[in-house]
Amino acid sequence: MNLNYRIVEATPADYDTIRKIAHATWPSTFKDILTGEQIDYMLHLMYRRQAIEQQVADGHVFLLLVEGQRGNQNANPSPQYLKGGITKFKPVGYASYQADYLPGTTKLHKVYLLPESQGKGFGKQLIDKVATIARNAGQKALRLDVNYQNKAIGVYEHVGFRKIDRHTTDIGNGFLMEDWRMELALTD
After folding, report:
1. What does the domain layout of the chain look like in residue ranges?
2. Which CATH number is associated with domain 5-142?
3. Are 10 and 62 spatial neighbours (Cβ–Cβ below 8 Å)?
4. Where is the N-acetyltransferase domain (predicted)?
5. Contact indicator for 105, 40 with CB cutoff of 8 Å
6. Are 89 and 68 in contact (CB under 8 A)?
């Protein structure tokens, strides 16, 4: 695990970064599951600046995971990323969550990492961060929805999520989201 990383709460100045990570991640993540047309539709639906602003207004909190880069002159991070002797931090992933999505339950809406940053343990770090925030807020469970064909299901099960049920959501334009609903208990 790379110890040179930080997880920071995103600000409006980071919304474009979140959008860029989504656009760099979704095609490889969903290429075997969704059509290119549905990927484009969903990216537009969820990652336009106005869509992110609406999600935040609805209670979503976005977190950025930034990885330390020594001497990388091309990175131009916000000052909040510069810490601990690392000269630059590059945003490589994000999560979003919503406390009290249901009473006592936090919803983990999104966890995405750039393809080159996957397999480094960063996804687990983002999930652990959201679980800690939720636990500290007195939440009893962390819930998420994941496409029923997504390879990440194994990762979620490895960190303790269990499948509750499968459901389908009509997202418009003739497209469906076919997901497993999964939950992680936050109490012993």
Report:
1. 5-142
2. 3.40.630.30
3. yes
4. 5-187
5. no
6. yes
Binning pLDDT at 50, 70 and 90, where does residue 71 land? low
pLDDT at position 69: 73
Q: In sequence order, what are the beta bridge partners of 31?
A: none
178 token code pair: 């076919």
Tell me what pLDDT residue 75 has: 46
State the burial class of residue 7 (Cβ atoms within 10 Å of its Cβ: 0-12, 13-18, 19+).
middle
> Quick one: tokens of 149?
């064909």
User: Residue 129: is it exposed, middle or buried by C-beta count within 10 angstroms (0-12/13-18/19+)?
Assistant: middle
DSSP labels, 121-143: SHHHHHHHHHHHHHHHTT--EEE
Q: Return the number of other C-beta atoms located less than 10 Å from residue 108's C-beta.
A: 25
